[in-house]
Each structure stands twice: as structure tokens, then as C-alpha cells.
């Protein structure tokens, strides 16, 4: 079973004092952002600042997964970003605001420009879908990324790209939010729900986690350690879900032994899809 990824936490790339605190959050994947999280006039310096801070962490024994969110593949900084990741103490790349398969192909093209292409190819990739165009071309984008391990949906940038008005109900992003999860899971990838900007609003965050799980998301974008803690807990099966899965499988196996393929539990018919769901629940719980 692939390593579970629930929480991905973004931190700015030009502030080493924040980067050195990243391990405390306990995210499944930590992401240093050289794109939106770093001012334009600090992008060049951010690479060296980040690398020095991360090398210090690695030297202290911290070996958890750390990715870099590069600038957009069409930007002037992208090739140097990729080169820095390929030669640095990093595990993967996050490609932001993807609009087409060509944006993903740019990563492979960059690897041919004076750097170790095999090293670039060994890096895991998380794909950022943050625009109407990205949603429209989602299948082609995912299909182009042979080393992708996950996809995230960025609601704020998506809404801006199409002129939508954001709301706490999330009704305006319901379609793309569901589509990102569907395509990602269909390709066997992890998928990460939109971030919640107000990290103090835990009620909204927990509600969005529940919504995300119902869509099929495996985790969520985080901006604060408390969000990481909530995500890591809320994207695991509850005790009640685990107990129900155990009971369902037990009843199903007993029914099969008696020659019944679709038994009923508490008035509910149990068939193949529910059995697979129960098995997935127990696998996620490590049961």
C-alpha cells in the first residue's frame, strides 16, 4: 500500500525562520512555496535560503517528505527552480496553476537543460489545479504526469480565474471540486482539498474536511499546524466507521458461506461496492 498522504502544508520560501519550524507541524508532506508564497523580488534568494535551512534540518536528522512548489512552468524562474530542486535535499515538486498538458511537459523539457534528467524523473510530483482552464484540461494534465502522486484543488485562484464570488457554502466551486477528486482517484492519485484561509475558523475547516471526504479527497491543503492536526485526524476512519466495516465484512462472509451473495444488515442490502468500501476503510485504518 502506498504511503498515506493526508496533510500537505505550505510555507513561504524566503523566511528561513519559518522553514526551520516546519517539522513541528507534522504534515505528511511539507511544501516550501517559491511561487505565491515568495515575493517577486525575493525569488532568486529564496532558493539559497530554503536550501540552507533544509540542509540544516536534514543534518539534524529530519527525513520527512519535503517538496518545493516552483513558479509556473512558463515563468522566467522555472528552469532555475527545477535545477535547484534536482540538486537539493528535496523529495518532489509541486507544479502550480496548471492549465494544460504542455505545462507538465515543461518539467521534462527543463530537465534536458544542463541538469540530471534521471534525478528530475525520480522526483514525485503534485499537480495544482487552480483555474477554469486547468479544470477543463484536467484529464490531459494528469495523463501527462507519469510521476504524479497527487493533485490539489485551489479554490481561491479558481474562483478568481472565472470571476466567481467565493462563499462559505462553497457552492460556486462544487463542480470543479468534485471533478478534481474524481479524476485524481480514477488515476490512482491522492487528492487534496482546497485550503481554508482563516486558520482560526476550525468549525468551517472541519465541515470542509467532511465535505472533502464525501467527494473522495484523501487529504487537505494546510496553512497552519493546527490545520495539519485536524486533517491528519479527520481524514482517517472513525471508530464507528471501522466497527461498521468489520461487521459488514463479517456478515458478508457468513452470508456467502450460506450461499447468499447479497445479505442484509439492519435492512440495508450489502453488495460488492459496499464490501470494497469496507475493505478500503479497514486498509486505511491499518486494520
Which secondary-structure class do the elements indicate?
Answer: alpha/beta
- Rounded to the nearest angstrom, the distance between the terminal CA atoms is 13 Å
Which range does the strand content fall in?
Answer: 5-15%
Number of domains: 2
**Can you write the helix and strand succession as a string?**
EHHEHEHEHHEHHEHHEHEHHEEH
CATH class of the largest domain: Alpha Beta
Strand order of the largest sheet: 1-2-3-4-5-6-7-8
Return the CATH topology of the largest domain.
TIM Barrel
Please, what is the oligomeric state?
A: single chain
Gyration radius, in Å: 21 Å
Question: Any low-confidence stretches, pLDDT <50, length ≥5?
Answer: none
Classify the helix fraction into a percent range.
40-55%
Shape: globular
Question: Going by CATH, what is the homologous superfamily of the largest domain?
Answer: Phosphoenolpyruvate-binding domains
How many helices in DSSP terms? 14
What can you tell me about this protein's structure?
The chain is an alpha/beta fold. It folds into two domains: 7-234, Phosphoenolpyruvate-binding domains (TIM Barrel); 239-285, no CATH class. The protein is built from 14 helices and ten strands. The strands form two sheets. It has an eight-stranded parallel beta barrel, surrounded by four helices. The protein has a two-stranded antiparallel sheet with strand order 9-10. Strand 7, helix 11 (202-215) and strand 8 form a beta-alpha-beta unit. The radius of gyration is 21 Å and the shape is globular. The mean pLDDT is 92.
